[in-house]
Amino acid sequence: MAVGEVMRMEIPAGGDMSVTSPELHVLAVDDSIVDRKVIERLLRISACKVTTVESGARALQYLGLDGDKGASGLKVNLIVTDYSMPGLTGYDLLKKIKESSVFREIPVVIMSSENILPRIEQCLREGAEDFLLKPVKLADVKRIKELIMRNEAEDCKTLSHSNKRKLSEYIDDASSPSSSSTHGDSSAKDFPSSKRMKSEDEKFSSLL
Amino acid sequence: MNTVVAKLQRQFQDYLVSLYQQGFLDNQFTELRKLQDEGTPDFVAEVVSLFFDDCSKLINSMSRSLERPENVDFKQVDSGVHQLKGSSSSVGARRVKNVCISFKECCDVQNREGCLRCLQQVDYEYKMLKTKLQDLFNLEKQIVQAGGAIPQVNIN
């Protein structure tokens, strides 16, 4: 897996990651026009680029995952999707994204108006980054953005501290799942359950 | 000292507070107002406008589904109520949302009469809210036209 593919960050000449603040491009998926308008504003106010679509099918189309060649321009750094939608649910969309070798590293956040624990667990197990209870507030979006930016910064720090030899080692590690990885954060990516467990705890404590 | 502006601002504040106190609006409306600024002065008005259009559309389709007693599509009604509950929750339309809760219960037990009553109530509530918010937005316009700023109102 090439980590750089997911997040194109502008790395300044000095290589100092703390200075750069790239804009996340978020794909927001919701069948409700009211909710699309609200989430779009929430994200824009949080300095994100936003594309909204009205269904899981359109989301896959936008990503170019539906078999047709119609892939969009901008890389997507985060997908925020409603759970209950006609046709493809948010969960179905999540699964399709995590099944894709190209897109599975894109964090996916699920939104739902219903606080159903088994549903939340199911989504987190499937690899969702987080779960938001509707109605979504500014504080929720801020939290998600910080979480995503933190993860991306950790990924890039891992990359920038590697020399060529380490990089090729990393690529070898990623392709053989049984090997023990010495790269802290990359192992979290290979074994998503460890990361999910943490988010589960965080999520539960904020819900209960 | 512009007393016209101050008077309008006071009116606006009192009116908004009364809408919360009478249960028309809840905290989510406050959250929406946070998202509005000088660059996007019509944001809240635009969102609620979409909401009211949604209400009208959903109420019409649910009405059709409930029309013939011998052939009610409760699944369709339930889906409509779910959508209405969701969007009313997203804009802070508290009374509309509360009717949806009762509405869903009637759907669950396939109570057509109950559903029709709830439908009527939800129609009444959204139209009432529409009128109230129109008055609120008019006050906002007057304040801006008089050269004033829209007050940040603290509800609690």
From TrEMBL, chain A:
InterPro entries: ARR-like, CheY-like_superfamily, Sig_transdc_resp-reg_receiver. Residues 168-208 are annotated as: Disordered. Gene3D superfamilies: 3.40.50.2300. PROSITE patterns: RESPONSE_REGULATORY. Residues 25-149 form the Response regulatory domain. It is found in: Nucleus. Keywords: Nucleus, Phosphoprotein, Transcription, Transcription regulation, Two-component regulatory system. The keyword Ribonucleoprotein does not apply. Residues 197-208 have a biased composition (Basic and acidic residues). GO terms for biological process: cytokinin-activated signaling pathway; phosphorelay signal transduction system. GO terms for cellular component: nucleus. The modification 4-aspartylphosphate is found at D82. Residues 173-185 have a biased composition (Low complexity). It comes from the Eukaryota. This is Response regulatory domain-containing protein. It comes from Brassica campestris.
Automatic annotation (TrEMBL), chain B:
Keywords: Acetylation, Cytokinin signaling pathway, Cytoplasm, Nucleus, Phosphoprotein, Two-component regulatory system. It holds the Pfam family Hpt. Residues 40-136 form the HPt domain. InterPro entries: AHP1-5/YPD1, HPT_dom_sf, Sig_transdc_His_kin_Hpt_dom. It comes from the Eukaryota. One of its GO terms (cellular component) is cytosol. One of its GO terms (molecular function) is histidine phosphotransfer kinase activity. The keyword Acetylation applies. The keyword Transferase does not apply. The modification Phosphohistidine is found at H82. It is found in: Cytoplasm, Cytosol; Nucleus. One of its GO terms (biological process) is phosphorelay signal transduction system. Histidine-containing phosphotransfer domain (HPt) contains an active histidine that mediates the phosphotransfer. Functions as a two-component phosphorelay mediators between cytokinin sensor histidine kinases and response regulators (B-type ARRs). Plays an important role in propagating cytokinin signal transduction. This is Histidine-containing phosphotransfer protein.
